[in-house]
Specification:
The structure is a single chain. The radius of gyration is 14 Å and the shape is globular. The chain is mainly α and about 130 residues long. The chain is about 50% helix and about 0% strand. The protein is built from 6 helices and no strands. It has helices spanning about 5-10, 40-60, 65-70, 80-90, 100-115, 125-130. The relative contact order is 0.19.
């Protein structure tokens, strides 16, 4: 069975290729659409940094705000995505996650990864990503 694209790319958030030169990118990017990282820790680091940037630069406050930006309507069923993340985190969509708290961001990253890839995230990989911040 083939692994989900985000797992194969060590990019659990399915971050698209762009101008960001992330730490831990593979020297050769062969996907064409999504970043490919050298390991899952660097993929989770990028996911967490992106969420932190959403708070700092884009004013995202609630889980719903973050997911509307992460998974816009023109690409996703955003309301279903918000519901799934909130169920996995066991919080309401109005919850305002502390983007500087390791445990909160571990839960948030795990929920996004599971929605993106359809498989549970490995907490150790997320914590390793947090430790790279």
């Amino acid at each position: 069975m083939t692994q989900p694209r985000g797992i194969r790319n060590c990019n659990p958030g399915n971050i698209r290729l762009g101008k960001d030169k992330w730490k831990g990118l593979r020297p050769e990017q062969t996907d064409g659409q999504f970043c490919q990282f050298t390991d899952m820790a660097h993929g989770y680091r990028a996911l967490i940094r992106t969420l932190q940037t959403y708070r700092q630069k884009h004013g995202c406050r609630t889980v719903a705000d973050f997911i509307r930006r992460w998974a816009p309507e023109h690409e996703n069923n955003t309301s279903a995505y918000i519901t799934a993340v909130c169920q996995k985190m066991q919080v309401p969509s109005t919850c305002e996650p502390d983007v500087n708290d390791r445990d909160t961001m571990t839960a948030f990253a795990a929920a996004i990864s599971e929605v993106e890839n359809g498989v549970p995230a490995q907490t150790a990989d997320i914590r390793a990503g947090w430790n790279l911040l």
